[in-house]
Design brief:
- The protein is of the alpha+beta class.
- It has four domains: about 80 residues, no CATH class; about 70 residues, LysM domain (Membrane-bound Lytic Murein Transglycosylase D, Chain A), CATH 3.10.350.10; about 100 residues, Membrane-bound Lytic Murein Transglycosylase D, Chain A (Roll), CATH 3.10.350; about 120 residues, Glucose Permease (Domain IIA), CATH 2.70.70.10.
- It is about 25% helix and about 25% strand.
- It contains eleven helices and 25 strands.
- Strands 13, 16, 18, 19, 20, 22, 24 and 25 form an eight-stranded antiparallel β-sheet that branches.
- Strand 3 and strand 4 form a beta hairpin.
- Helix 5 runs parallel beside helix 6.
- It is globular.
Length: about 425
């Protein structure tokens, strides 16, 4: 993808490793295995030397570390403009925008709907999602090459998800002013992991001296129940059986009732009985009831609902712990209810995030903002401006990711919004 001039200097300021690669095969290899970006423009590094035409592979690892520590520069935040994505010759990668259809994509790219469907192994042309990634063949003659690449990407993603690292735990001792949200961000973990590995619930302030268990990867611990198998657990949590075996150093798939088991990449959610996702709901005994009365954080259309979905960026199975409300960049986000701000800052894939604690051990979260208007520790009223809509973190467009949690576990926000 071409990288805008706006961020070229930022890349070099971070002293990222840059390698000039002139062959497509090298680019494909590096991109698929290191999450690299490539650029087909000539540009210079500010030192008087100029790169000749070719493809520049940028190692993004250091940038991610910088992002989690500072929150001001991110390969996924609003300072990065993704103008055009793709590879030369055979195909290019696009992201489906709001209201996008295969018919429109076909017309704008000069390639038939049938060829787009074949290249991406789509079963239904009418089931596109906003934020979905599609690979568009350059011509009818490159459909098979595009399909081959798409399958390679899928196979490689699946292989990585099957190879979970053995779980290792470390202890973190809570300091004054800590919140679970801040702790999760410090260790670059999903906050669902912190809740899923500890018997804690988010209050205004954690007790100093409390020991929080920190795993070396995202996931949760469960206690094996009667009749549960590795296959059933994997299906229920949308993860691979191989990942469960490797994370727990298991030589075979036999399980013993009462065993404590780590499920890499899984999330715990509270789901009302009779609703969808019963495979996950069956793992949760203590569902909760939260009264209606929370206000909408912003006026807009829901672009992604609560529950199981295909992750719009990673393309893997995912449990969406909130709702995404699409709105123009800069529109005001307001507090859904009165409470105390327990986190205001960068938080991993959520980007610039506000978390508010409310009476009754309820918290609300507002993610992907372009600007935060309140600080941690502030008391806010219902309807008070707290942020502005953006697309920071791992995001496919301007929206707010809104969560409601009871005792740390996410519930469907639609059931409590008025």
């Amino acid at each position: 993808m071409r990288i805008s001039k706006k961020i070229k200097k930022s890349f070099f300021a971070l002293t990222l490793t840059v390698t000039v690669v002139f062959s497509y095969s090298c680019i494909s290899f590096a991109a698929k295995r290191s999450g690299a970006m490539w650029n087909s423009n000539d540009f210079n590094d500010g030192s008087g030397g100029e790169f000749s035409a070719g493809y520049v592979v940028v190692d993004a690892i250091d940038a991610r570390k910088y992002e989690s520590q500072n929150g001001d520069l991110s390969l996924m935040n609003d300072d990065v403009e993704l103008i055009e994505e793709g590879a030369p010759g055979d195909w290019k990668m696009i992201t489906v925008e709001a209201g996008g259809t295969l018919s429109k994509i076909s017309e704008s790219n000069g390639i038939s709907i049938e060829n787009i469907m074949k290249a991406n192994e789509l079963a239904d042309q009418h089931r596109l999602r906003e934020g979905q990634t599609l690979y568009i063949p350059a011509s009818e003659g490159s459909v098979d090459a595009t399909l081959k690449y798409v399958r390679e990407m899928k196979d490689e993603a699946a292989a990585k998800l099957k190879q979970a690292s053995p779980v290792e735990m470390t202890d973190y001792v809570v300091k004054k002013g800590d919140t679970l949200w801040q702790i999760a961000n410090t260790f670059n973990l999903d906050v669902n992991t912190i809740f899923g590995c500890n018997k804690v619930s988010e209050g205004d302030v954690l007790k100093v001296g409390t020991i929080i268990k920190i795993p070396n990867q995202d996931g949760i611990f469960i206690t094996v129940g009667s009749g549960q198998t590795v296959e059933k657990l994997a299906k229920g949590y949308d993860i691979y059986p191989e990942a469960i075996l490797s994370a727990n150093r298991m030589k075979d798939a036999s399980l013993k009732q009462g065993t404590r088991l780590f499920l890499p990449g899984a999330k715990v959610a509270v789901i009302e009985s009779g609703g969808k996702n019963n495979a996950v709901a069956s793992r949760v005994k203590n569902t909760v009831s939260v009264k209606k009365g929370f206000g909408w954080p912003v006026a807009g259309k829901i672009s992604s609902s609560y529950g199981r979905r295909r992750h719009p960026v990673r393309g893997t199975g995912d449990f969406h712990t909130g709702i995404d409300i699409r709105a123009p960049r800069g529109r005001t986000v307001v507090a859904s209810a009165a409470g105390k701000v327990v986190h205001a800052g960068w938080m991993g894939g959520y980007g610039r995030t506000i978390v508010i604690s409310h009476p009754g051990n309820i918290t609300t979260l507002y993610g992907h903002n372009s600007k935060l208007l309140v600080r941690a520790g502030a008391n806010v009223k219902r309807g008070q401006a707290i942020a502005q809509i953006g697309s920071t973190g791992i995001s496919t467009g301007n929206h707010v990711h809104f969560e409601v949690r009871s005792g740390g576990r996410p519930i469907n926000p639609i059931r409590v919004l008025r």
